[in-house]
Design a protein that fits this description.
This protein is α/β, with parallel strands linked by helices. It is built from twelve helices and eight strands. Helix 3 packs parallel to helix 4, helix 4 runs parallel beside helix 6 and helix 6 packs across helix 11. The N and C termini lie far apart (39 Å). It binds NADP nicotinamide-adenine-dinucleotide phosphate. This is NAD(P)-dependent dehydrogenase (Short-subunit alcohol dehydrogenase family).
Length: 312
């Protein structure tokens, strides 16, 4: 039987954080979780857009318990401030959805000087997840869902030197590398929490091709000539609520063990289930290397990570 949001369990008593929840797949996921009685924190870089997103949820789901908090994944100080705020304010967090993303913009850097796609899509979420680990562990079991993309298959292997900014910037190569990094991180996190016996599951999802603002905000931003192309391309995409199903399945389907990759069973579109990612994404050495580099680039040192884990 096809999996739809009607099959989502009650999320009563749980708290979920969704990054990039003001639009697209993140907004759909936040709304569906709120409809199932989760308390949902919309983690957004622009508070006005966040409040508008919250009001749009409330207009459809009057009982929704939704809060808006500022998180700019392209600034590690903002990530740290967000994590400290959540840690201080929330007793527990049961679900972290690492959804926010940018695709193929012109060359830009994060506040700390990393290429924007790698910095936002991977490093920001890496730092956020590690800083939230103690809070994620304080419940009876938590999930971290990281949203990747079929585009990860365009990266035949992780290229750390490219991600560090050596070599000419190629916007799609960077996007593909950042989405491969999402998967390597997902699987490495699962191995690490499993080794430590922590009550966390780490899984990845991808939406297929869904009509959202991703094209407009990334490669077509500020280009009025090619923007109509984005609108045209989106006509071939599935609606954003369908695009959110793999994320919601990864977040709530009871029979998952961690380390799964969830996507539309039809590839670009359709209902979700467990799918396979590229061979490169299962490369354990690359995942460990990425982990070490990510600790360094996100200003979390090894002692911090061990202290975070030991606190749990
Ligand atoms: N749509 C697809 O077909 C597709 C396919 C494969 C993968 N994906 C993945 O799905 C995820 C969601 O994208 P979407 O399609 O829903 O696109 P979207 O509507 O453009 O949503 C992206 C979200 O990320 C937020 N964001 C961007 N940079 C951020 C930052 N520095 N800090 C915090 N938030 C930031 C955006 O905020 P603003 O509104 O403030 O810009 C927006 O809320 C992404 O990870 C994307 O790579 C999408």
């Amino acid at each position: 039987m096809d999996w739809t949001i009607d099959r989502m369990p009650s999320m009563q008593g749980t708290t979920a954080i969704v990054t990039g929840a003001n639009s697209g797949i993140g907004w759909e996921a936040a709304k569906a979780l709120a409809a199932r009685h989760a308390r949902v924190i919309l983690a957004v870089r622009n508070l006005d857009r966040g409040e508008m997103a919250k009001n749009r949820i409330l207009s459809e789901i009057p009982h929704a318990n939704v809060a808006v908090k500022r998180l700019d994944l392209a600034d590690l100080r903002s990530v740290q401030a967000f994590a400290e705020d959540v840690t201080a304010q929330e007793v527990k967090v049961n679900l972290l959805i690492n959804n926010a993303g940018v695709m193929a913009p012109s060359y830009q850097t994060t506040r700390q000087g990393l290429e924007l796609q790698f910095g936002t899509n991977h490093i920001g979420h890496f730092a956020l997840t590690l800083r939230l680990l103690p809070t994620l562990c304080s419940g009876r079991g938590a999930r971290v869902v990281t949203v990747s993309s079929m585009a990860h298959t365009m990266a035949k292997a992780l290229d750390i030197s490219y991600l560090r900014g050596h070599g000419r910037y190629r916007r799609f190569t960077s996007y593909a590398q950042s989405k491969l990094a999402n998967l390597l991180f997902t699987y490495e996190l699962q191995r690490r929490v499993q080794r430590r016996g922590l009550a966390i599951q780490s899984m990845a999802a991808h939406p297929g091709f869904a009509a959202t603002s991703l094209l407009d905000n990334g490669m077509f931003a500020r280009s009025r000539w090619v923007r109509p192309f984005a609108r045209f391309a989106n006509r071939f995409a599935q609606p954003s609520d369908m695009g959110a199903l793999p994320t919601l399945y990864a977040a709530t389907y009871p029979d998952l063990v961690g380390g799964e990759y969830i996507g539309p069973l039809g590839g670009m579109r359709g209902y979700p289930g467990v799918v396979r990612s590229s061979e490169a994404s299962y490369d354990v050495d690359a995942a460990q290397c990425l982990w070490d580099v990510s600790l360094e680039l996100s200003n979390i040192d090894v002692d911090d990570w061990i202290a975070l884990a030991d606190d749990m």
